[in-house]
Design brief:
Elements (H helix, E strand, L loop, with lengths): L4 H15 L20 H15 L5 H6 L3 H12 L5
Helix pairs in contact: 1-2
Length: about 80
């Protein structure tokens, strides 16, 4: 799955829905820890939503090292090219 503007927009909508942060305030460089509603529970909700929506399986260790929207988009792209275990 290439990282296209549509892919980025789709991811931004998902992040907005999970975090209750308006999508128009999120950019590729937005840091998750800077979002007002960010917590470990929200992080896990986002992980499961992203995995289900994009059909990828992300490693928890890598996911928790992800700091920005762009980094998560890149992780999804890489995850979609790897077979699920």
């Amino acid at each position: 799955m290439p990282d296209t503007p549509d892919h980025q927009a789709e991811l931004t909508r998902i992040i907005s829905a999970v975090t209750d942060v308006p999508a128009d305030t999120l950019t590729g460089s937005s840091r998750f820890r800077d979002l007002d509603s960010w917590s470990s529970l929200v992080a896990l909700r986002l992980l499961t939503t992203v995995e289900a929506h994009f059909g990828v399986q992300l490693t928890l260790r890598q996911y928790f090292r992800t700091e920005t929207v762009d980094e998560l988009a890149a992780m999804i792209t890489v995850g979609s090219t790897r077979p699920c275990a």
